[in-house]
Amino acid sequence: MSDARQFCTFYLDGFFFGVDVMRVQEVIRFQQLTRVPLAPPVVHGLINLRGQIVTAVDLRRRLGLAPRAAGEQPMNIVVRTDDGAVSLLVDEIGEVVEVGEDAFERPPETLGGELRALIPGAYKLADRLLLILDTDRTVAIHADAA
Amino acid sequence: MSEMDDVVREFLVESHEGLDQLDRDLVALEQSPRDAKLLAAIFRCVHTIKGTCGFLGFGKLESVSHVGENLLSLLRDGKLFLTPEITSALLRLVDAIRQILAQIEADGGEGDVDYSDLVATLTRLAEGSPAPAAGVAEPPAAAEAAAPKKARGSRKAKAAAPEPAVEPVVAPVPVPAAAAPAPAAEAAHAPEPGHPAEAEGRASISESNIRVDVALLDKLMNLVGELVLARNQILQYTASHEDAQFLATSQRLNLITTELQEGVMKTRMQPIGNIWSKFPRVVRDLALQVGKQVAIEMEGRETELDKTIIEAIKDPLTHIVRNSVDHGIESPAARVAAGKPAEGRLLLRAYHEGGQVNIEIADDGGGINAEKVRQKALDRGLVTPEQAARMSERELQNLIFLPGFSTAEKVSNISGRGVGMDVVRTNIEKIGGTVDVQSVAGQGTTLKIKIPLTLAIIPALTVAAEGDRYAIPQVNLLELVRVEPGEGTGIEFIHGAPVYRLRGNLLPLCYLRRELGLPERAAAEGEAVNIVVLHADGRQFGLVVDGIHDTEEIVVKPLGQLLKGLSVFAGATIMGDGRVALILDVLSLAQRAKVVGEMRDQKRELRDRAASLAAAGSTTSLLVFGVGRDMRLAMPLAAVQRLEELPRDHVERAGSHDVVQYRGEILPLIHLARVLGAEAIDDPAKPLQVVVYADRGRQVGLVVDGIHDIVEDALASRAPVGHPDLAGTAVIHDRVTDLLDVQTVVRNACPWLYATEPDAQEALA
Q: Which residues in chain B are contacts of A139 at CB distance < 8 A?
């Protein structure tokens, strides 16, 4: 299967998401965050990743999903972007899955709002849909825009 | 050994570099003998060496390079063609030059090696004669063998203990016995004459100078930054330990880290003169082009700055200098007409101050016309008419930094395209600097740039707000004030705007929580207030924080793109405990809190606020001011139009009255000290403090000797007083203060203001 792609998967408010495994720098468990006052609400805070300061984006908020229940600690998926590393806060980490291009489909029409803009498509897995997240668009938010 | 002076040293370094290139070029030339560019480069190099050594008085070197130059010029002009023989001769020439240079480097002399054979060979080749059998390939052993020996011997002499010379060296260089076997070995290397000497000669220069990749220095700098962080963490940990050994070790680590940091930072320092050095030429060319006469002066060119900063300010500085010549300084005719010398003056100054570098670019040109700026800004729609009307002169002048702004009447190819000053400012602010313009119409313009010495590691104060820590760069910090409850006056409010009286001056305050949009904290009763006194943009203000931690060196790390829009933060850093803390950008914070702005405007704002308050509430806002040495007076703030500082030489006489031209009108002045019979303090060095009082469209300036305060007072404790110009006496802030009856004073002093008005009596009622 030459056109197979690998995705690092994660769960978010019941949805099953994937980001291109090549874009993922690392996955780390919850880190202490330093909040950034006045920042766009999707920016959850800053984490210290071995001396590097990384912005953490609250994916639930970014995708317009319900806020995470209090006391639940998110995981960090650190992705590489043009602007260096950015951490995406997710509920739970899944496995790395390999999918064939033939299973790809444009996002379902039922998908609305923010989700639709950031999800270029989905892979039909045997038991569920794997929604692909466009990381570049996901982190393309500016402080003044929010 | 004779002391080499700097010129010679520089000549040596340059020549060595040139010779290396020459080696490569000559070899390349063999491959493509007709390459005119290569030939020209080779010729230039030899020519330069010849010229410089002639100038420095190295006769032998000059004569050798002279014949080489002759030969090269023939080659260059195509009168001769390169043969392997010529190439060899030229390479020998290069070696010979190297030898002599090594000798010069060693003892300042040229040595006594006889190069007549080489000279003869070169001359013969230049004349186009064929070579005698082995003339070129095998140079006379005697001369060649002697040379390396000498160079080598003298070099050794540098390091080794001096012993009586056994070598026939011109300069009295002692040669250690250990060097004695050298000649034989060297002689064997005759086909490569001078090579050992060259290598060793170079090595000695290399010992004091090496070229290092800047990227490597950057990496070192980053590593040192991390080390500083680790050191900070260890020091924090140390505090809770009592192991003497551990304490001593961490203390040593502390010292070494600090020294290492300084050292690494020094490797990246360069004098600002490096970028200034091209300005005289820039100014000269530009002045010529636009028909002006400009003299450039420089002060503090040895001021050192981090290399990255030097790079970053190069273009902005060039732009400013060009701007000054093009727009700032007037044409000679205009200058003479204005009573200035025909030649304009451009002064560049650099100096260290408080961990920052200040750079000033001052010209004595026409200055910035605030009116023109205002008009231009309006034309371009950069500001609204309301904004423009409210702007002070200083703020107007600073409009030149707006994108798309240019006051030049005509666009020249030098400047005036409206791209420029905004880019200048952006570039300077990018490196954490500030730029400010000060201009006096007709007298010139000064641009002041303040930039940090280095970007990577800065001392900072950490403060707390809502459980988080924030770092404030030490450069912005003036002092820390802790206001205990019940002590002094505490924090006062002027229509909601908090101020604190710091040694008699009103310090505008802002709250970190409020500025950061954090929840307000209910001020607990009996709790001390922490005020961090900061300065930004030349003004002071106080920042109220929850708590003050300590100062430490922090490594500035940039924020990601996601947070770039947040100007309140200059970056982030990692604290000793590994957590991230944000670094506050004091200037942005101040602007956000609106505590910096023109002082005059602040006063006016206070007045506006107070006026509205007075209209709404039962208390009266009073302006408290001083007259004479000891009189303390108050007047209703609502009657105050503006507070002004006017230069004393602006005062003119009209009839029996002092007047000033003020906003296109004539403003009569009333010296309150004289009216009230107080002992006047006429300090000619200080500007006049004037309270502009307005009543029904008429304005009068009341000259006072100091504005003290703006207070709200119910005036409950008012007592009558015997003076006709005083409405009474009250206790304001525990001090007895006379209330000025402004209308009476004005009517008595300037009766004509009311004379023609039918409702004059009413006004006085």
A: 561-562
Residue type, B20: D
Considering only CB atoms, A53 lies closest to which of B517, B565, B580, namely: B580
Instruction: Looking at the complex, report in whole angstroms how far the Cα of residue A2 sits from the nearest Cα belonging to chain B.
Output: 35
Nearest to A38 among B516, B564, B574 (CB): B516
In which region does residue A5 sit, left (phi positive, over 0), alpha (psi from -120 to 50) or beta (all else)? beta
Residue A49 pLDDT grade (very low, low, confident, very high; cuts 50, 70, 90):
confident
Residue type, B92: R
Q: Note whether A39 contacts B: Cβ–Cβ < 8 A.
A: yes
Instruction: Supply B733's token pair.
Output: 């802030």
CA distance A131 to chain B (A): 24
- CB contacts, 8 Å: A83 with chain B: 560-562
Which residue of chain A is at minimal alpha-carbon distance from B465?
A37
How close B562 comes to chain A (CA, Å)? 5
pLDDT reported for residue A18:
93
In the predicted model, is pLDDT for residue B763 greater than 70?
Answer: no
Q: Which regions of B176-293 does DSSP assign to beta strands (E)?
A: 269-271
Rounded Cα distance between A33 and A12, Å, is 19
In DSSP terms, B539 is beta-bridged to: B536
Residues of A in contact with B565 (CB under 8 A): 142-145
Question: For A26-44, what is the mean pLDDT?
Answer: 88
Q: Which stretches of B2-83 are DSSP H helices?
A: 6-31, 36-56, 59-76
Q: Which residues contact B681 (CB under 8 A, 6 or more apart)?
A: B628, B629, B673, B705
Tokens 């270029």 map to which residue? A120
Cα–Cα distance measured from residue A11 to residue A88, given in angstroms and rounded to the nearest whole number: 12
Mean pLDDT over each residue of chain B, to the nearest integer:
74
B298: which 2 tokens? Answer: 């420089």
Asked if B561's CB is within 8 angstroms of A34's CB, the reply is no
Residues 700-729 of B with CB under 8 A from A: none
Pairing status of strand B580-584 against strand B652-654: unpaired
| Separation between Cα atoms, residue B327 and residue B286, nearest integer Å | 11
pLDDT at B609 over 60: no
Q: Which two tokens stand for residue A27?
A: 């996955």
* Interchain proximity B557–A144, CB inside 8 Å: no
Chain A residues near residue B558 by CB distance under 8 angstroms: 53
Q: pLDDT tens-digit profile of B701-718?
A: 888 888 777 776 655 445
Q: Which of B182-186, B229-233, B242-246, B432-436 is the most confident on average?
A: B242-246
What's the CA gap between B269 and B199, in Å, rounded?
29
- Taking CA–CA distances from A32, the nearest residue in chain B reads B579
B520 close to A (CB below 8 A): no
Name chain A contacts of B582, Cβ cutoff 8 Å: 34, 36, 46
CB atoms within 10 A of CB B596: 22
User: Strands B491-494 and B497-502: what pairing?
Assistant: antiparallel
A143/B566 Cβ within 8 A = yes
Report if pTM > 0.80.
Answer: no
Report the candidate in B408, B428, B409 with the shortest Cα–Cα distance to residue B361: B428
pLDDT band, residue B616 (cuts 50/70/90): very low
From CA B419, how far away is CA B413, in angstroms rounded? 12
The structure tokens 């908090």 sit at B498
Taking 3-state DSSP, the helix, strand and coil percentages for chain A, each rounded to the nearest 5, stand at 15, 45, 40
Contacts of residue B35, Cβ cutoff 8 Å, sequence gap at least 6? B28, B29
For residues B554-578, average pLDDT: 81
